[in-house]
Amino acid sequence: MSSDTSTSQKPKRHALVTGLAGFCSGATEAAVTMPFDTVKTYCQVQKRGLGPLTGAKEIYGYRGLGGFYFGLPAVLVQVAGKGAIRWSAYEQFKTGLQAAGAPKGSVDFIAGLGAGFTEAFLWTTPTERLKVLRQNDIRSGQNRYSSLIGAVRTVSTEHGITGLYAGIGACGIRQASGVGVRFAIYGRVKALLTTDPPQLWQSALAGGITGCASTTLNHPIDVVKTRLEAQDGMHKEYTNTLQCLRRIVSEEGFLALYRGIAPRMIKISLGQAITFSAYERYSDLIHEFGTAVVASMMPGSMGS
Q: How far from 177 is each of 24, 27, 109, 174, 271, CA to CA, in Å?
C-alpha cells in the first residue's frame, strides 16, 4: 500500500465541496464534544487546582445538565465555520506549495500552519471569546452572555470590536500548531492503520491519535488563551500572551499550564476522530450529489 492516504489520492475537490464538507463535519464534532470543552474551560479559569470530575460536579451543581452546553450557539457557529475555513484554506495552501515545489514531507505541516492561522484570524478568535465568556457565566451566576447576538452587542459596547479579538496571539499560535501537527501526522498514521479501501473506524482512529498528539503539544498555550479570553470588565489581570504565561507559572506553578488537559484530550481526540472521518464521508456525499445534479441538468437527461 502506498504511504499516501486515500484522501490525497482523490482528485482535488472544488472549494465549495471542501467548504461544505468542513462545515458539516465541524458541526457534527461540536454537537458531540461540547460537554468536555465546557469542563476544560471551567478548570482552566480556576486559579485553584481543580480536577475534571470536581469541575463537572460543580458545573452540574451550579447549572444542571444545561450548564455543560453553555456557549453552544457560539461553539456551533465557531466549529462549523472553522471547519469550512480550515479545509478550504488547507487545500489552497497545499496546492500552492506543491506548485511551488515545496519538499513533499513538509507540505502537509506548512499547509496546516497556514490554515490554522487563517481560521484563527478570520473566525476562531472572536467566536472562542464569546464561548469562553458564556462559559464563565456558570460560576458567576450571571447571564450577561446568554445569547449569541446579545454577547456580541455587550462585548462591542463595553470593549469595542477589538474586544472580540482578546487573546488573538495565543489563539493563532494554538490553532496553527494544532492544525499543522494534525495534518502532518494524520496521513502517516492513517497509512499505517488503513486497509484498501479504508474503513470509517480506521479514519476515526487516525484522527483520534492526531488529536492526542496536538493536545499534548499545545495545551499550555490553550490555558493562556482561555485566561486572556475570560477577562471581563475594565481591569485586566493579563495584558498579553507572554505576560500571562509568565504570571501563571510564577504565581501558580508550571503544572497550572496543564489544567483541564484530561477533558481537552478527550474532547480533541474524539473531535478529530469525528472531524477527519466525517469530513471524508461528507466530501464524498456532497461531491456525488453535485455530480448527480449537474448530470440531471444536461441536455437529454430529463425524461419525457
A: 23, 22, 9, 5, 17
pLDDT at 164 over 80: yes
Q: Let me know if 17 is exposed, middle or buried by CB neighbors in 10 A (0-12, 13-18, 19+).
A: buried
Give CA–CA dist 43/146, Å, rounded.
20
Structure confidence at residue 255 (pLDDT):
94
Contact by Cβ (8 Å): 116, 176? yes
Mean pLDDT of 71-80: 82
The C-alpha R_g of the chain, in whole angstroms, comes to 20
Nearest to 88 by CA among 30, 25, 185, 22: 22
CA distances from 55 to 44, 46, 50, 143 (A): 10, 10, 6, 19
Give mean pLDDT, residues 147-172: 92
Q: How many angstroms separate the CA atoms of 41 and 57, rounded?
A: 14
Q: How confident is the model at residue 7 (pLDDT cuts 50, 70, 90)?
A: very low
| Alpha helices (runs of H) in the chain, residue ranges in sequence order | 6-9, 15-45, 52-63, 72-99, 104-119, 125-140, 148-159, 168-193, 200-230, 241-252, 261-297
- CA-based torsion, 189, 195, 198, 203: positive or negative: negative
Q: How many whole angstroms separate alpha carbon 43 and alpha carbon 133?
A: 14
